[in-house]
Design a protein that fits this description.
The chain is α+β, with helices and mostly antiparallel strands. It is built from eleven helices and eleven strands. Strand 5 and strand 6 form a beta hairpin.
């Protein structure tokens, strides 16, 4: 699992990014900062800790500090000739944001409770999103103190609603996956932190206390994918990011993400994205 280190330009308290891209490409990762992700246009699957759920345009999620996550678009976004785009806004702020005020003053108690809930990830329902979406968009057009005021307004509105769902399971605990943890939680944690290495079916099945054949049925039922498909999806998502960054050769990317031979990597990459790795880099830069 990648630990993302987020830089805040000019030591600002908030980082706001508005993006339009062919697809989400950032792999399974976590960071110490809180994150508010608003998908203006796009569909796919969100992975948050042990939660796997579809997302669509208008999706709004608040992620707590160190909560592992990644978003993956539908395959139609990466097929050859696709003109689809994902449009989104990401707002990130430090885990010590107004920490003393939130913990001390009653005016901040609702926001404090909201941030505590975000440890499991929070997906807000459409009526709530419609109330805050314009303010979130306005944050991309402002700077400085005005941006902080707008963020506090958004957080206060989100803190007062009951129209939300928590994403990670009730017994999910960061960095604490004991034997009595939920079976899927333990399996997903293992896969999502080791997908760059060789993962054997027998090893994962044993961890779930299931026969390999029974585990395959269990995993397919929970994720909609075979173990190999899921692992390859994570590897290719990470490869997409590395290819776009263009700091490594295709061969280096192949082994970095967990494949052990180049031909298999190229074949799997083409199957997943509709492009060869080189074509994908050219396509991304063309767009």
């Amino acid at each position: 699992m990648m630990h993302e280190y987020i830089d805040f330009p000019g030591l600002s308290a908030i980082k706001v990014k508005r993006r339009e891209e062919p697809a989400f490409t950032y792999p399974w990762h976590f960071h110490t900062e809180y994150e508010l992700l608003y998908v203006m246009e796009g569909t796919g699957t969100s992975f948050v800790a042990d939660s796997i759920q579809p997302f669509e345009s208008g999706d709004l999620v608040l992620l707590g500090s160190n909560l592992p996550h990644f978003w993956k678009n539908d395959q139609s976004y990466t097929t050859e000739g696709s003109k689809k785009k994902v449009k989104y806004i990401v707002i990130q702020f430090p885990d010590d944001f107004f920490h003393d005020q939130i913990s001390k003053y009653p005016e901040f108690c609702l926001i404090g409770a909201l941030l505590e809930r975000s440890a499991r990830g929070i997906r807000f329902q459409p009526p709530v999103v419609s109330q805050v979406s314009e303010t979130i968009i306005e944050m991309t057009e402002t700077k400085g103190f005005e941006r902080i005021i707008l963020l506090m307004q958004v957080l206060q509105m989100l803190a007062t609603t009951k129209e939300y769902i928590l994403l990670a399971g009730e017994y999910y605990q960061q960095k604490n996956f004991e034997a009595n943890s939920d079976r899927l939680t333990r399996v997903m944690h293992f896969i999502n932190t080791r997908y760059q290495h060789n993962i054997k079916l027998e090893e994962v099945a044993e961890m779930a206390h299931l026969h390999p054949a029974a585990f395959c049925r269990f995993f397919k039922e929970k994720t909609g994918k075979s173990l190999l498909q899921y692992v390859n999806d994570m590897r290719i998502s990470y490869a997409c990011k590395l290819i776009i960054e263009h700091r490594e050769t295709i061969s280096q990317v192949c082994f970095e993400v967990g494949f052990n031979n180049l031909s298999n990597f190229n074949r799997t990459f083409k199957k997943q994205t509709g492009f060869t790795p080189t074509e994908y880099y050219r396509q991304f830069n063309k767009n």
